[in-house]
Structure formats: C-alpha cells, structure tokens
Amino acid sequence: MDRKAFYASLRTSLFKGGVSQQQVDGIETLLDQLEKSAVDLEKSAYILAGVYHETGAKMVPVREGFASTDAGARAAVKKLFDKGRIKTNYAAPVNGVSYYGRGRIQNTWHKNYEKLEKRFGHPFVRNPDLLLDDKIDAEVTVIGHVEGIWTGKKLADYIGGGRKDYKGARRIVNGTDKATMIAGYAESFEKALISSGYTGKPRPATETPVTPSAKAGWVSALIALITRIFKR
User: Fold this and answer.
1) Quick one: DSSP state of residue 138?
2) CATH number of the domain encompassing residue 43
3) 3-state DSSP call for residue 176?
4) Tell me: the pLDDT tens digits for 32-54?
C-alpha cells in the first residue's frame, strides 16, 4: 500500500491538525499487523476506527482514563464507580493486580485477561501492562476483532460477503455505545485505505541489497576457481 497516500487522506478528515509521530508509530504497527493477518479493506477500516475512538485518536495503547500511572487508572475507575456510572469497581485489585482497561481496545476484567493469556500465550494475568506494549497490543487488537474474543461477536458477523454494517460491528467490543460515531470514523479510514491501494495482503519480503564489497568477493572467488581449473 502507498502509506503516504493513506496519511494524506487522513489529514483531510480525521487528523486535520496533522498526524503526530506518536500517532504514526501506532498506526504503522497496526497496518503491519493488519497486512500480516491479511485483513481485508473494510474490516481493517473498522478496526482502525475502533482504535481511533478508544484511544482518543492517540492510536497507541493507553491506560483507562488516559492515566499515566497504574494508580491514576485505578482512581479513574473508582471515580466512575463512586458516581454510579458503573455497577462494579472492576479496577479493585485481584491478588494485588488491577484489571482496568488497557490497550488500544480497552481490555477490562480479570476473566478477560485470562482469556487473552490463553489465546496469545503472554502472561497477561500476572503482568497486564503487557497490553501497553505496541506490538503485543496490535496483535491482540486485530485478532480480537477477527476472532471475536471479547463478546463472541466478530468482524465477519457484520462485514464481508457484500455486507458492511459498521454500526452493528460495535457489538464486537461494547454493545451499541457510540456505534454511529465510530461508523463514521470507519468510513474515513476506508476512504484512506482505498486511496492507498490497500489490498489486505502481506507486503512482499524485500530482497537484501547486494553491496559492492559483496560483489567484489564473488568476483575474486570466481577468478580463483577458474585459475585452479586451468592449472589442472
């Protein structure tokens, strides 16, 4: 894909103030994972849209409440609980570890971290902050949407085979919360992906360039071989 064209399109829609280096870094890791997993264009657009919403357009893994520390994230969840906006303080520690939202798609609750650990093989239960690792989280984010890890709903239930239900796809993560808004974001990402020529196929491995020194070595070896043959 033409990534320059992709970013040029986004600068006229969702990132009108320009795309920061942090945003680029987060998007690049996601694009690499999307191509590695061969996710088609419309499904990729929806994943990017969900990330745009969940991270407040940062496009990188974040803690709940965009807190910079573990304590800050716990406090953010407790504040919601104290105000009655959530029924359970899911950030309350379990064996000394708190399972508030982390990552590009806010993964919450102890049982969900157990689910991720079983699927991906990383010790998320003991070390939930692994979801703040850019590459680890990109894999979880993409595969989570494709396989329906969070709610049992997956991308293929809403997108593909001539169907494109960006609004309904919100059920993959969180019911219908902000579904219409995220669907609008998906349309913008779809436009950007189209402009880039995105195919959903892994990038071909680049060939290792042949350096002048390597060429010289080959020539010397060939001359030595010919000399030995003619001396026989």
Assistant:
1) H
2) 1.10.530
3) coil
4) 999 999 999 999 999 999 999 99
